[in-house]
Amino acid sequence: TAYDPHSPYSASKASSDHFVRAYHDTFGLPTLVSNCSNNYGSFQFPEKLIPLFINNIRNNRPLPVYGKGENIRDWLWVEDHARAIDVIFHQGKAGETYNIGGHNEWKNIDLIRLMCTIMDRKLGRENGTSEQLINYVKDRAGHDLRYAIDSTKLQKELGWVPSLQFEEGLEKTIDWYLENEAWLKNVTSGDYQNYYEEQYQKR
Q: Residue 125: is its pLDDT beyond 70?
């Protein structure tokens, strides 16, 4: 599918791919391009949805959901992404592009409700407690409704497949953040708080 970015942010990422392909076509530079769906896992900075909501649920803070929460994303465990990069680097054909996806699309609101259920269980709270923290906020300008990735080429040509089912990976991810509270507190101190307040203003 041809690139069709709708925000300066996504346009900047598309342009970088075009530059790389142009150097391969014009000068024969041995390039490889990979495009990946949303990652989740340990050590992810908590401006991203999953670690942000883990942290907020634990601390009984509002869960800022863009728009109506109907944006759809495909999710991939970060270690599966790292394995795919390694496979593409060593086995991929120069000049080719490979999509890395989890075949695992979720509406944001459905993912958030699943996280609330898991967190209530792990924190010993009554089921449904964390859902009460959901707070709908103004959607981002140019925010795409759906990101979809077809990784059939990568699977057929290079033999890569995701290693984890999403529910298993999400449980492992939540456990990691609950066990590494000191790391999370360290990276959410200082200027991050100012960024957070600006980014997630109420509607």
A: yes
